[in-house]
Amino acid sequence: MKGVSWGLIIGVTVGVVIGLLLASAAVFCIKFRNRRAKIRSSSSRRASTIPIRANGVDACTILSDSTTGQESPKVAEVNEGPLWLEGPKMKAVVSVSGIPKYSYKDLQKATSNFTTVLGQGAFGPVYKAHMSTGETVAVKVLATNSKQGEKEFQTEVILLGRLHHRNLVNLVGYCAEKGQHILIYVYMTNGSLASHLYNEKHEPLNWDLRINIALDVARGLEYLHDGAVPPVIHRDIKSSNILLDRSMNARVADFGLSREEMVNCHASNIRGTFGYLDPEYVSSRSFTKKSDVYSFGVFLFELIAGRNPQQGLMEYVELAAINAEGKAGWEEIVDPRLDGNYDMDELHDISTLAYKCINRMSRKRPSMRDVVQALSRIVKERHSRKRRSRQFLSITIEEESTDHDNGGAQTSMSDHQREESIDSLSDLPDV
After folding, report:
1. What is the distance between the alpha carbons of residues 335 and 120, in angstroms, rounded to a whole number?
2. Residues 232-279: pLDDT tens digits?
3. Range 311-315, long-range pairs (CB < 8 A, 24+ positions)
4. Could you say which of 3.30.200.20, 3.60.20.40, 1.10.510.10, 2.70.70.10 is the CATH number of the domain covering 93-186?
5. Where is this region: Disordered (predicted)?
6. Percentage of the residues of the chain whose pLDDT score is greater than 70
7. What is the pLDDT averaged over residues 24-30?
8. According to CATH, where is 1.10.510.10 located in the chain?
9. Using only C-alpha atoms, what is the Rg of the chain?
10. Mean per-residue pLDDT for 125-135?
């Protein structure tokens, strides 16, 4: 009887312990599931769609015509309200983006009551501002009649709060006050690349600088595709969305149409700039990283030719591709402002790379990582050639200097021997 009692006690005890463990596991699973649901909800809010515009800062509106109409993504947006509402929602946005908020009064003073205009884009006017801290910034103000700009405002604040790379334009603040929605960027001294390609007041960009700019842009896109978590698709790469700093380093701008790759990438309406749009995206309504690769390929040809798609760029490219055998043919599309000052081997390599990027089948296009490696190799080989050329020139100059010194010594020796000969002749007896 005693043995039975102890067995019963042990059995009950084990049963209770197992029950407690199962209950704890169930509670843990419920909490874990709720936490994942919150993360997915937060990600959906961050990645809400914004229709992309045609022009960037300091862009000429005749250079790029964006599609129109309101996009209706299949993924439902969790938060339909504007992110600049005051109260708890605003605090939540600030905590997510990490971007400082500026007062309208301070920006009004910094821009001399919004009179220091830098340019005009689809989002609205852009002003140069001198902040009280001594910092110079670019202030982009949402036009009051711009519906798509409100969504772009939301996307740029949230996305650029977590994207940081030397080849991306930095968002340093925003303002949502008195019915105004304003984005504040690091000031890029030399404006947009488009203004240097198409505005006669600027000196033509030399060949080496164009290749360096292409590499900068490629590195920025590679970071978006492979460095950002989750990856980001820019969706509007073109010369007017590339800004140049004081040293002519390039940075990718305008993230209003950008989306995180984790979002359903199907849209009922097409968004982007005509001429730069991936034809596979146009036909399938599905955009991927390779859609950015296509736009980058068009952008590369734009750099080479000094001509944009609205000026028949791709028609010239296709004609040149027919005749591009060996390392000849691509010179037909080169920007005449270069006046022939470019390297034929580099032209062939970069044009061939750009042509791979614009393949109509996305799976045959290279990744941005492959593009960066190819452009880096071209730039590295250029530097090696220049270094060898300088070394050869230095050796040649040294040899010429040595020959000159030896020649002088030989001349002195000859003169000395001639003098000795004359002296010896004078010592001969008279006949």
Report:
1. 27
2. 999 999 999 999 999 999 999 988 888 887 666 666 577 889 999 999
3. 313/275, 314/275, 314/358
4. 3.30.200.20
5. 390-431
6. 71
7. 76
8. 191-385
9. 33
10. 91
Separation of alpha carbons 222 and 219, rounded Å? 5
**Selected catalytic residue, list 58, 236, 278, 335:** 236
> How big is the CA angle at 48 (ends 57 and 363), to the nearest 5 degrees?
80
pLDDT in tens, 207-225: 999 999 999 999 999 999 9
CA distance 188 to 183: 14
Q: How many CB atoms lie within 10 A of CB 106?
A: 14
Ramachandran region, residue 175 (left: φ > 0; alpha: ψ -120 to 50; beta: rest): beta
C-alpha 56: how far from chain center: 13
Tokens of 431: 């006949």
- Does 216 participate in catalysis according to the annotation? no
Cβ atoms 191, 119 nearer than 8 A? yes
Location of structure tokens 């090696």: 384
Distance CA 255, CA 123 (A): 11
